[in-house]
Structure formats: C-alpha cells, structure tokens
Amino acid sequence: MSKEWLTHRVTEEEDGRRIESIIKHTLGFSRRRVQVLTRSNGFTLNGKKAHLDRRVKTGDLLRVCVHQEEESNLAPVEMDLVILYEDDDLLVLDKPPGIEVHPPEQKARFRPTLAHGVAHYFEQQGLKARVRPLHRLDKDTTGVVVFAKSAFAHQALDRQLRKDSLQRGYQAILIDEPAEAVGSIRAPIGRDPDHPMRRMVCDDGEEAVTHYRVRQTLPNRLCLVEVQLETGRTHQIRVHFSHLGIPLVGDRMYGGHSPLIERQALHSAWVSFQQPRTGEIVKVTAELPEDMRRLLEP
Question: Tens of pLDDT along 167-215?
C-alpha cells in the first residue's frame, strides 16, 4: 500500500522528549490519529520501528505517515471543476451556485454534489482517498471551498479553523445600506421552531459574531459588503443581515426576494491558512460571479 511520509529532524530543544509528544505537539497529530499510526506502523525513528514512549535525541530522524491509500466514500461523478489551488494535501475549488458541497447523511434520492465531482477528480489523478470537505457552503452560495486529501490534512486545517488561524472572507449584496459603514453583528443564532431549515436570532441560540465593511453602494441602495465570520453558524451571514432588516438580495428564505437574481447574493471570496506540512501561509481567492457582478453595474 502506497504511503506518504512527513520527515522531522529532532532539534536540540526536543532532545529527550518522547516520540508521542513530538507527533502530537510538534507535528500536530490528534490522539486519534496517533492511535491509527500505532496500529498501522505509521512512524519510524531513524528508519526503524519504535514505541511511542521512546525518547528521542538531537538529530534523530522521525518519519510519520500523513497519507495512505483509502477507498473512496463517494461514487465518482464527472463534472467540470474550477480549481483555484492544489497541492499534495489540499484541493481548493470555486463552487458554482445550485449544487451542494456534500450529500447530507439522509438523502431521499441521489443528486450529485461537488464532493462527487471531487471523487471523480481523485480517481482520474490516481489518488485513492476519501473526500473530506473542510467546510460547507449553502447550495446557492458560490466561491471558495477547501477539500483535504487525507485525514492528516483535514485534522490540521480543522484545528486552524477552530483556533481562528484559518480565515475566510465573504462578499454579500444587501437590499439596503447598513446604518454603519463598518460594524459587527453580535446576536445568538438557533433553529426556527416553525421551519426545519431556517435559523433565527434567539436568546437561547449559539453565540454568533459577524464583522462587515461596506465596499460599494448604488443609486438603487443595493450595497456590497465584505464579511468575516468570528463564528461559523448555519446561515449566519444571511440570518444576521436579515435581523438588521437588510437581508441579502435574492434571499427568499430570509426576506430578500428580488427579481434581480435567482439566489441569495453571497460569495465565499477568499480563504487563508497554513499549509499542513510546511506551515507556509496560503491565500486563495475567487472572483465575484457574473450574476453578482451584474447587480453592481451602474
């Protein structure tokens, strides 16, 4: 079985530490992944098998498996993918409107999702891997979506997402201007008891914080805003601006119905993260789609 390895040379500061400590705290593997590595002979010290409690010395060479072949978890479906960035660990796509990122667990009938297209792309590239989206976008939201090629990469980026070192930026077009050109919306979000899909601002909801900045206003009062999320609740951007009385243009679910566009005017514009193996900062951007650009034409 083919494997890919991460190589680490023990530094003076790490002299005397246990292998388990290096793998967890220096290389960033979770406890669960360490257990998998132990069962699958997934690490060596100076080219030989070793126990997790073995203490290392300066200059020792630790090799840890970051990827091994897996059976795909989805049926491959051929589709045109717009690839914004790719390396050995990650695939970043520009998602079009009208397609789900990944199938929900309960599905009445089969409908291809972006993840099925990724499964086909992996197959064509000879990569035997599960499809692991780092995050999801609503069906009609466009833009940047990140897929990991291994459990190691997914875990590394998920940790960045939870620690806010992975940043995401959005662009949205509102039906009117906010009262303030720059601001933050702090309002908890929970489920709407009257609608299975909808969310709402409510006192017993989960903390939700949205930061925004106005970038362009038009004579018809439509307004382009840049948005960054401090939290990542379902429909957060849509719910928060609707709560202010200025929903996204085209957002039928949250009061922004408009003949100008057939979906909510929301776009995942960029993502910034540390490459899982090298630590290099990578920023990937996606241009505003045509239907949203048309809304901003004078």
Answer: 999 999 999 999 999 999 999 999 999 888 999 999 999 999 999 999 9
Whole-number Å distance between alpha carbons of 15 and 149 = 32
Q: Cα(119)–Cα(134) distance, rounded to whole angstroms? A: 15
Would the pLDDT of 283 be above 50? yes
Tokens of 273: 């993260």
Contacts (Cβ under 8 Å, ≥6 apart) of 201:
187, 188, 189, 239, 240, 243
Instruction: Please report where in the chains the tokens 């200059």 appear, as a residue.
Output: 59
User: Does 42 have pLDDT greater than 90?
Assistant: no
Using a 10 angstrom Cβ sphere, with 0-12 exposed, 13-18 middle and 19 or more buried, the burial of residue 32 is exposed
Tokens 């509102």 locate to 174
Q: Output the DSSP codes for 198-228.
A: -EEE-TTSB--EEEEEEEEE-TT--EEEEEE
Which residues are designated catalytic?
Answer: 138
